[in-house]
Design brief:
Distance between the termini: 62 Å
Strand order of the largest sheet: 4-3-5-12-6
Shape: globular
Structural class: alpha/beta
Mean pLDDT: 87
Oligomer: single chain
Radius of gyration: 24 Å
Low-confidence stretches: none
Length: 303
């Protein structure tokens, strides 16, 4: 039997992963009808049915689920080998780095020029990936993530503690707010990060339910950068990790408020690096890890 085309298998895997022909078409930059035709042809050729429609999604059949799980690792291996070949052909080494978006934009990217100077033959491709994953099922070589411990079974390094959060706002808002005590903040719009709904309630009080209810009021934003920009624009006051708004404070876009937290919740977690086990003779990931740990060591005293 002739093997199916790589294009058909890519479309099958993508549709299975996303649960949608429409989303698969968008990711692969083809039409939805092209996805449907390739999968129908594959089903006719192999004599199996890969999908069933459930409401607005396509769901794998048992045969489809087993087949996709078996080919996914092989497709990832082909993709990885092709990228490695292309990078070596150009005299470059490539690191595919998955990283939580906030750490990437606020901390890592401003420092990457230093790594390029140290290791000019290594290219770091950055992917926003806040969710955990398995290296064996991904294209990534390394991951920077937030948590309380490193991932098991991989070379890892502790990078930096997030540290306590502080209330910040625009200088204009502070000048007109007439704040005399901590509770006066409850008269202002409090900006919330959707993934940390208890940040303001915890900052105000650990036990006072009336204060906690009032502290939950205010607009919510999905991304850290949205909260930061909202605070800079004068939309309200945000409570954010100091290490993540240091540049905005140094530039004068944000100022901290002179009130201590009513309830010290302690450090909420740390950032870690984990990466694939390198093959003999490979050093790109170890070099990146060494540079990254050094950057965090230099930064730690000011956090």
């Amino acid at each position: 039997m002739r093997l199916p085309s790589l294009i058909a298998l890519q479309m099958l895997e993508c549709a299975a992963r996303l649960g949608s022909f429409t989303r698969a078409a968008a990711e692969l930059n083809v039409t939805e009808s092209a996805i449907s035709r390739q999968i129908q042809a594959l089903e006719a050729r192999l004599g199996v049915r890969f999908f069933e429609r459930v409401r607005q999604r396509v769901v794998l059949t048992s045969e489809g689920d087993r087949y996709v799980r078996e080919i996914r690792a092989e497709l990832k291996a082909i993709e990885r080998a092709t990228k490695d070949l292309a990078s070596r052909a150009g005299g470059m080494e490539v690191i595919e780095l998955a990283v939580v978006p906030t750490f990437a934009t606020q901390w890592l990217i401003p420092r990457l020029a230093s790594f390029r100077i140290d290791s000019p033959r290594i290219v770091v491709n950055i992917h926003a990936r806040p969710e955990p994953f398995h290296f064996g099922d991904s294209i990534y070589d390394a991951a920077i993530y937030f948590g309380d411990r490193p991932w098991d079974g991989h070379p890892s390094a502790a990078l930096i503690d997030e540290g306590p959060s502080i209330p910040v706002c625009s200088p204009t808002l502070l000048a007109h707010a007439k704040l005399r005590r901590r509770e006066d903040l409850l008269r202002l719009p409090l900006l919330h990060l959707a993934s940390r709904p208890d940040a303001w309630p915890d900052w105000f009080s650990g036990d006072d339910e009336a204060v906690r209810r009032r502290a939950r009021l205010g607009p919510r934003y999905d991304l850290f950068t949205m909260v930061t920009r909202g605070a800079i624009a004068g939309l309200g006051v945000a409570v954010l990790p100091e290490m993540m708004v240091r540049s905005e404070m140094e530039s004068g876009q944000l100022v901290t408020l002179p009130f201590p937290a009513a309830h010290e919740a302690g450090r909420s977690g740390s950032y870690f690096l984990s990466y694939r086990q390198e093959k003999p003779g490979e050093t790109k990931l170890a070099r990146f890890a060494s540079w990254l740990v050094g950057q965090c060591r230099d930064d730690a005293p000011t956090c």
